UniProtKB/TrEMBL annotation:
EC number: 3.2.1.14
Single GO MF annotation: endochitinase activity
Reaction(s) catalysed by this chain's protein: Random endo-hydrolysis of N-acetyl-beta-D-glucosaminide (1->4)-beta-linkages in chitin and chitodextrins
InterPro entries xrefs: CBM5/12, CBM_sf_5/12, GH, GH18_Chitinase, Glyco_hydro18_cat, TAT_signal
Protein's GO biological process: chitin catabolic process; polysaccharide catabolic process
Protein name per UniProt: chitinase
Length: 507
């Protein structure tokens, strides 16, 4: 996956390159007993260089598990890993430790990920950078014990795929850490995140897994990046995910002939890119695609669903290209997360828990007016804790506020949605999130605005359960849409330039 390396990281790396010291061997630190991940887990990537709190976004979005991107060295040749190669973010409690502990306390967890596009193209992926297998293994162990996590991810793409020496060192280090974990009674999983074609791994990706087998390194999950195909073909992104995973299944069956079909599917993960990917509109993953992938993933029994990245799960740049902070399509904030979050199975139940609801759950207002709703909380387990409340998903021209912004579980708050005359007609989903030290929950408020900028929509509102045929028009989120052909369940604004719905403009 791609990211822009921060200027601070680049300058700091240049200034401190000679001071970077690597670990020399696997330490004697005791292994703790991290809670294993669920058999099925949704764990979107979190862009850790943005300065945002992973615990806060986990609570707001409803994603209990996160894949944390990325760990890499500050300079090529170093054996010390930092978050994003930024020497001010070492592998230490001071760097995300409190956030990770909070997420774990709420029954979730994080998966630290090594590599990524920037590291893999600059020689700063730890196994490409460091030539000492023991020091690489020591870095892996330090991440595991510092954050008490049950899985490490290796995001290997571009140049790192072709670095055969790095591939071999990485798998040898994985084997050493797995032996250490076994000796200390610790459950540890390893995932490889790899680029894919629409029919399975390319030879370079498959070679990484073959080398792991040769070195005796156990790979628990192979996570396909089911986007950025760059093949100039017409894409049904949901169908491409299915064929890519089937191709991987066939490849894994040859690598692991003793595994059952259920075990092989249980080794597979998929990572989508919500909305428009780096190639452009021809590769647009829609909410309709997300629902199809969810149903397929549950039926097949795959291990993981992820996407790049949590900060992109919003409609802040509709009609735009791929960006790290929005999807490029019309959507509500956290729409993709809400589709995929139920995929996670099992997990731990917080000892101190609460419920959250909004009443009423919807309102219709004329632009310039306000709507209010009561946010109610109650204790469902253990003792009452402080619940911090936030609201997200308000469109331009709408301000969401909560008074008070935190309550003791059992208390209530008032949600106020104030609109301006510039607010666009349409129906918007506002997510109200509550987070305590041990749990996080959310509820949705549906706000319909009339009489705003543009004329009030006259076409019937779109309905997910209605069948539409070519030429029929609907209104949705302040726009009028025309169906190009038969469709049902595909949300206007999510099907891309060549999808079923044609945008006729604001109404």
């Amino acid at each position: 996956m791609r990211r822009m390396r921060s200027l601070r990281a680049a300058l700091t790396a240049a200034a401190t390159a000679v001071a970077a010291l690597g670990l020399t061997a696997i330490s004697g630190a005791p292994a703790q007993a991290a809670t294993p991940l669920p058999a099925r887990v949704f764990a979107p990537y979190f862009e850790s260089w943005t300065g945002e709190s992973p615990a806060a976004l986990s609570a707001q979005s409803g994603a209990k598990h996160l894949t944390m991107a990325f760990l890499q060295t500050a300079t090529k040749g170093s054996c010390t890993a930092y978050w994003n190669g930024d020497t001010s973010l070492p592998v230490a409690q001071q760097s995300f430790g409190a956030d990770i502990k909070t997420i774990q306390g709420r029954g979730g967890d994080v998966i630290p990920s090594f590599g990524g596009y920037t590291a893999d193209t600059t020689g700063t992926e730890i196994a490409d950078s460091c030539s000492d297998v023991d020091q690489i293994a020591a870095v892996y162990e330090k991440v595991i014990t510092t954050y008490d996590i049950p899985r490490l991810d290796m995001d290997i793409e571009v140049d790192a795929l072709d670095n055969s020496a790095g591939v071999d060192r990485r798998n040898k280090a994985i084997k050493k850490v797995q032996d250490w974990a076994t000796a200390n009674g610790r459950k540890l999983e390893i995932s490889y995140t790899l680029p894919t074609t629409t029919t399975g791994l390319a030879p370079s990706g498959l070679a990484v897994l073959k080398n792991a087998v040769t070195n005796g390194a156990r790979i628990d999950v192979v996570n396909l990046m089911t986007f950025d195909y760059y093949d100039n073909a017409t894409h049904d992104m949901a169908q491409d995910t299915k064929t890519a995973a089937q191709g991987l299944y066939d490849q894994l069956a040859k690598l692991y002939p003793s595994k059952s079909p259920a075990q092989l599917w249980g080794m597979i993960g998929v990572t989508e890119m919500p909305g428009v990917d780096d190639f452009g509109p021809a590769e647009t993953f829609t909410l309709a695609n997300a629902r199809q992938v969810y149903d397929w993933a549950v039926a097949k029994g795959i291990n993981m669903i992820s996407f790049w990245a949590l900060q992109r799960d919003n409609g802040g740049c509709p009609g735009g290209g791929a960006r790290d902070n929005c999807s490029g399509i019309e959507q509500n904030t956290w729409d993709f997360t809400h589709v995929f979050a139920p995929f996670t199975s099992g997990g731990t139940v917080p000892s101190d828990d609460f419920s959250l609801a909004v009443s009423p759950a919807s309102a219709t207002v004329k632009a310039g007016a306000s709507a209010t709703s009561t946010v109610k909380t109650s204790v469902t387990a253990g003792s009452a804790q402080t619940v911090k409340l936030t609201a997200s998903g308000a469109p331009a021209g709408v301000t969401a506020s909560l008074s008070p912004a935190s309550v003791t579980a059992g208390g209530s708050s008032t949600l106020t949605l104030a609109t301006t005359a510039a607010a666009v007609n349409g129906t918007y989903e506002i997510t109200v999130s509550g987070a305590s030290p041990s749990a996080a929950h959310s509820a949705t408020f549906s706000l319909t605005i009339t009489g705003g900028s543009g004329n009030q929509c006259t076409a019937a509102p779109w309905s997910s359960g209605t069948i539409y045929t070519g030429g029929q028009q609907v209104s949705h989120k302040g726009h009028t849409w025309k169906a190009k052909w038969w469709t049902t369940g595909e949300e206007p604004g999510t099907t891309g330039e060549w999808g079923v719905w044609q945008d006729l403009g604001a109404c």
